[in-house]
What does this fold into?
Amino acid sequence: MNQTVKVPLIDTILRIVVLFLLIAWCIGIILPFLEPVIWGGVIAITLYPFFGTAKRWVGNRNTLAGVLLTLLILVMVPAIFHFSRQKSCFRLSCGRCLC
It folds into this structure.
């Protein structure tokens, strides 16, 4: 009787261990994609009011509003980075600039 109890117990323990290993493996695969998905959600929630305004401007056309908003963002983001770059200058006590 002792032998018949041990086989299902070992089998159950092995199945649980394999299940946990599979879950850990799946989490390891999904984890690198989690941060971009969260940022995509943050950006989508943030830009939704702008999308609604653009949609009203173009007569309730979703596709056109989305394309216009995307083009606007693709133009504005590089422009912001380009114009916000300031040449920082560290002046020494003697008046020389280390740029």
User: Anything to note?
Assistant: DSSP finds two helices and two strands in the chain. The first helix runs from residue 2 to 57. The mean pLDDT is 86. The first strand starts at residue 90 and ends at 91.
